[in-house]
Amino acid sequence: KREYCVQYRESEFDFISRLLEEEGIFYFFEHEENKHTLVMGDSPSAHKAIQGESQIIFHEPRPGQVADEAHIYTFNYTQEILPGKVTLKDYNFKKPALNLKGDKTAEKNTDLEVYDYPGKFEEPGRGKHLAKVRLEEYQTVKKEGSGATTCTHFAAGFFFTMKKYPRDDFNKKYLLTQHQLSASQPQVLEETAGDGGSSFSSSFECIPFDVPYRPDRVTPKPVVEGSQTAIVVGPKGEEIYTNEHGQIKVQFHWD
């Protein structure tokens, strides 16, 4: 529940995107032969394995060796030191004695804390949830993998398991967060018939599957430039209409 929520000088897509990002809700597309489905979720249970064989071997290209099956031929892994604790604080004038504080702590780097006010919540339970989402947002990019593959079934939002990488601790399940596919077949065009054969490349980014994915809050929130006037509204015949806190209700000219 939000005390006030409005779309202001932004597209429908931007409005929905920033709300989803604030709530930690992600989405991806599931493509099938006769339909395309938008999948939304906030937990790992929303993800499925890639189509076909989901266990993909790592095979580094070497002269005279050719892999007969789909494989990953480059893979890089990065780790960052990121905040291990998030604390959100707020105040509700209706309940001034209520301690509105929500926090969440990771297993490591707990001395690296992000503290934010206002936390934008009115109940302690909501604050704890938002702190959990914010911490998971930071933890999402703590460990990231990237690489290239010959597999044609990779797609963002789906997971795979890598096998036969030289470092055994890298052989595990990963969630695909980005995927770029490029293919060309110049010989089908008369003007480029002599420009060479077909080409295909597939690059990807991923995170360990045991790390909950949360989208970055990248969609900008519109800012009101200066003050605005509005019309005070209320029931017909009421000259002064306020609630129990002395607050009035207004309607903006653009609403």
TrEMBL record:
Name recorded for this polypeptide: Type VI secretion system tip protein VgrG
Domain of life: Bacteria
SUPFAM superfamilies recorded: gp5 N-terminal domain-like, Phage tail proteins
Pfam families: Phage_GPD (PF05954)
InterPro entries (alphabetical): T6SS_RhsGE_Vgr_subset (IPR017847), T6SS_Vgr_RhsGE (IPR006533), Vgr_OB-fold_dom_sf (IPR037026)
